[in-house]
Amino acid sequence: MKVSPSLIYSNFRYGNIKRHTNPLNPVLTDKNKKARVQFCLSMLEEDSLPHDPTFKSMENVIHIDEKWFNMTRKNEKYYLLPNEEDPYRTCKSKNFVTKVMLLAAIARPRFDVEGKEIFSGKIGIFPFITKLPAKRSSVNRAAGTMETKAMTSVKREIVRSVLINNVVPVILEKWPREDANSIIYIQQDNAKTHIDFNDKEFCEAVCQPANSPDLNVLDLDFLRAIDSLKYQEAPRTTEELVCAVEKAYQIFSSGLSNRIFLTLQSCMKAIMEVRGCNNYKIPHMKKFVLERYDQLPSQLKCDAKLYKDVMMDLIFEM
Prior knowledge:
Nucleotidyltransferase, domain 5, 5-stranded mixed beta sheet, 9 strands
């Protein structure tokens, strides 16, 4: 830039230069963009169209997704007392840090008129692990001791088994009784390992558009927050890592989870505005302030003109 570093720093301090973290976004084809817009339109209440488009409350949609959780980062930041010794961490290989895949299922939490939680929306988080007896003795355990091992390869049959044998029974157990007769939709992405939405043994499923992590609350913010909470622990074994992730899942605030569902609705509105592209900024609603004054909406509205323009674009193939 051919200027002094002090000048750059001064401009940054006074707000003339801003810091920006630039993420990599999935490449979208025209077909992807059209599918994203159609998905967002499907999330509008039919009774509100076309004059007052309003997004569905999404209370009967359960979002599922998997994520690899690492035992530790390559570099950790610590804050130590002046005389405290530096932590010493070891690993056989920095490129092969122990990790476990877990499948998370989350629905929108519900609250009564007084704001008290009546349903957390937390269906559960399910690890892909196996328990096998140790073949040899070591300084840590005797031969035959049951050890927890992470699955290194998770195929469709395994995911299908977990969904049918673990996730669905928990849904039936935890789902609010007043909605026992309602249709429950389980939203997943189009990963090859995910169950086919035509599977007869599985309940109603909704496949979100391809290359659209911003249309799932787990990818949008939830799993990243869980990962950050998990690093408050210091797991040393696979079993401790699973326990740390499960603990982070349980202590995550239901209020924050509810806000992520509102963020999802605002993202859908933004996707419609940019006609399916992912080059948009997530709108800031000041949800914390609205919640503090008991003004946080449960459903966002979409501009009627935007809805009509998007429908016209779809008619003419965008």
